[in-house]
Design goal:
single chain; 343 residues; alpha+beta; Elongation Factor Tu (Ef-tu), domain 3; conserved putative lor/sdh protein from methanococcus maripaludis s2 fold; 13-stranded antiparallel sheet; four-stranded antiparallel sheet; 21 strands
Length: 343
């Protein structure tokens, strides 16, 4: 093949983490013993669905006590209003003094205030009573449930999690030395262990500050769920594509490694005609697909021998064969250098 410069991507590999943008940790807002678990792990729930029930007997008794107290305060307020009406009639008839009338009004205001205070307490306690029924704050799939019926829980106890894997993000921590090149819109790929691209996305967020503990910059990119390929908190191999610049690439099979160094053969014109193989020491960069990026040792326009290199040495005569043609047998000095890739 004739070497020609082509755009070569500058790619860096990192370990990324899949995060859910809709991940919820369920903790109770009340303390007590669990009396019912209404869901199971792996079940999909909707917003408002019942998850857990906590023993609310003490709280119900507190609400009932306040409601009884309210009945007494309501009776006091009604009597105070009647006394005000009576005092007003007597004052207008001149049977009582203005002071007595004002005292009746003050008593009515105090009774009304006490009734309002009890109403507020009842409203608060009823709100607290609702916390003994734990409902789903968002739709999603229920995670592990570490508690059991009869366990005592507090406001810091984790009951379960609710994950919605329809909204996922890729988190990548990029070393601070690469931070100047980071910008929104850079291409980010998620690849598998064989290097096959699972998904391509673009950087949507670059942290304005550096993580003090790891000296990295957080980068985020949206990820779509593809046939359940990703899960929240999953580690993946991520590639950040910094850009592309002209360069040479050679097939992996055309390069040999000898004593820690890499060599390739090129076909050059011989003095008496024909072609001879010349061995070149090459410096290689990263692997892009099934090819190496060459950083030194080869130039554009040279004819690279891509097959039969195990049969030749430096200065050996070689013959160019059409693509797909079998190499000549018999002599170990015979190789191939086809433009389309010999056999």
């Amino acid at each position: 093949m004739t070497l020609v410069e082509s755009p070569v991507e500058r790619v860096a590999d990192y370990v990324g983490t899949i995060k859910s943008r809709q991940s919820t940790t369920i903790q109770p807002q009340a303390e007590g013993f669990i009396t019912r678990i209404a869901v199971s792990s792996g079940r999909r729930v909707s917003r408002g669905d019942l998850l857990f029930e906590i023993d609310a007997a003490a709280q119900q008794a507190a609400v009932a006590s306040l409601e009884s107290l309210r009945a007494a305060r309501e009776a006091d307020a009604g009597l105070a209003r009647q006394l005000v009406d009576r005092a007003r009639t007597l004052y207008e008839a001149g049977a009582v003094s203005l002071q007595e009338y004002e005292q009746a009004q003050a008593a009515q205001k105090a009774a009304d205030a006490q009734l309002q205070a009890v109403d507020e307490q009842i409203r608060q306690q009823r709100a607290e009573l609702a916390y003994y029924r734990v409902a789903a704050p968002a739709p999603g799939v229920v995670g592990d449930i570490p508690v059991r019926v009869g366990d005592r829980v507090s406001r810091t106890t984790m009951l379960t999690t609710i994950e919605d894997n329809t909204g996922l993000e890729l988190y990548v921590n990029v070393p601070v030395q690469h931070a100047p090149r980071l910008r929104p819109g850079l291409t980010v790929r998620v690849v598998d262990s064989q290097g096959q691209v699972l998904q391509t996305s673009r950087v949507s967020f670059v942290a304005p500050s550096v993580d003090d503990a790891t000296q990295t910059v957080l980068v985020k990119a949206p990820v779509t769920q593809g046939n359940g390929a990703f899960r929240a908190d999953q580690y993946v191999k991520a590639q950040v594509v910094w850009g592309a610049e002209p360069g040479l690439t050679v097939p992996v099979v055309s390069v040999s490694r000898i004593n820690g160094q890499y060599f390739a053969f090129v076909a050059e014109a011989a003095e008496g005609g024909g072609l001879v193989a010349r061995q070149r020491l090459v410096t290689l960069g990263p692997v892009v697909g099934d090819a190496y990026v060459v950083t030194s040792g080869l130039s554009g326009g040279e004819r690279l021998i891509v097959a039969g290199t195990q049969k030749i040495g430096d200065g050996a005569p070689v013959q160019e064969l059409p693509a797909g043609a079998p190499p000549e047998g018999g002599r170990g000095a015979t190789g191939t250098a086809g433009r389309g890739g010999g056999a």
